[in-house]
Amino acid sequence: MFDAFPYDEWGDDIAEFWTFGGEGSTGTWILTILGIAVMLIAFWGFVILENRKLTAQADRLKASGALDKPTTSPTG
Amino acid sequence: MISSLLPTWLAQVPTAEDVNARVDLDTLILTEQFYFWTVVIMWLIHVGFMAYEGGASRRKNLMSTAMKNILTIAVVTPTFYYFGWYIYGCFQEGWPKSGHDSPDAFPGFCGLTSPWSEAMGPNLQDHVSAVFFLAFLLFSWTTGSIMSGALIERVRLSAYLILTALLGSVVWILDAAWGWSSGGWLTTRFGFHDSIASLVVHGVAGAFALGVLLNLGPRIGKYTTGGLARSFRGHNTHLTLMGLMLIFTGFYGFYAACLVIQSTVFPGWLNIYGSPTTLGAIAFVITIGFAGGFTGGWFASKGDPFWTLSGGLAGVISVSAGADVYHPSLAYLLSISGGMVAVWSGTYIEKKLRVDDAVGAVAVHGVCGFYGVLLVGIFAGGYPTGINNVETSFGGQLMGMMAFLPLAFIPGYVVSWILKKFNLLRVPAEVELEGLDLAEFGQDFYPEFERVPEIIIEPDGREVESAPVLLDAYWQANGRPATPVGTGERS
Fold it and tell me: What is the pTM of this model?
């Protein structure tokens, strides 16, 4: 065993730092709530931003006349 | 000299306790590595889904299709971390009762699955929880992505992301808690057996997708006014087939990750229910399942390349539920039938039910997922399942099917119905006609390739230019009278 390296002692220090105080601590709760909030905002953003793009493009296409009623007959 | 060194040497000789501790640690690290590499291999499933669906889409929808697969990871990962894993750990006894006190579940597992628990962050003492979570997360991506291909070329990206988060982080993981865990009520009470997730992943994703498709509707021009099905030509069939081959490669990781191994706790390989099996047994079945599925798909489709490869997937899905039980010859026969069932049911869904499932996901995953669980009831009845050794039975398998069909279909139908009511499910018809890529990204993703007229295949097999067909269908969908054939009159 390579015991010159105090793995266990350093491990305890690192674990405490990583988890902002460990299971159920205030820091962990704050991070969890922040994460959930950002996740929900991201969902809202996906909806709003896409809706804006799609509506604008649909309006442009309608205004352009590109989708006027066809003058040639479809085959189906 | 020697006598003077002896005490030093003896002091360095490890004791039996030291050796045991080292073996325990190495075993844990082996388990950690095993699941880690299954996760790496399972990424290929998602590379494959992206290539598969991208190739099946028309050129004008390539990137919008691929973006769905990419952003599946962006939404299913956090939702699964924040509540999906907790559902798996704590709802094995059913809803609304949680599994905190379940005598059948692994003791204390529920407490390790909440996002604020010590197992869900960096933890030097825990080598297993994180990689086990990650393997399940990849299952969740897969389940969410199965629906993706069915909806291409007309679903809104944001609507898909909401639906895939619901499917990947709530619906499938709740059914996994019930029927794909050692403490799940379907297993402990009815011996429900679905060892490599025919139903809990594939069948459920297919049923959910069907619920969404009923609200989403077909692509513009998919059906004639008489209800006959046209075919859209995907812009790169080779990419589609390569994607399927990547999915197949990733499936080996998926299969392996469905087993449990940790020799400090269990004496050998276990399936998800805690019953003994081997990695070799399931590798036998998946490999011969592909062989049988390709064969069945080829014959049922008369050599169609798309259905031949999809038949391989359907074959594996059909035998996955009993992969730890079946003899390879039985798996071969059953997977041939599965490949055929996928082709026949896919044709029925498209032509008779008039549900526009762009890649046949409902047939391949949904129908064959349910079919696979049914086959276990027929061919593996009496097999002792789980830590309670409850015998698998036809009735128990039916119980699982009856529980999971509404569990999957109803949320898919209801949430997509709500999105539809808010006009957030489907892209505007004008955008669908032009192609989603220009609206979403402002560019064509083959800028140096000349554009050629898009082709559509009529029900009688004729290939015609699609623009007038689609434009006519667009006008009909907008409530105006169809252009009479040959008159060319304008309204």
Answer: 0.91
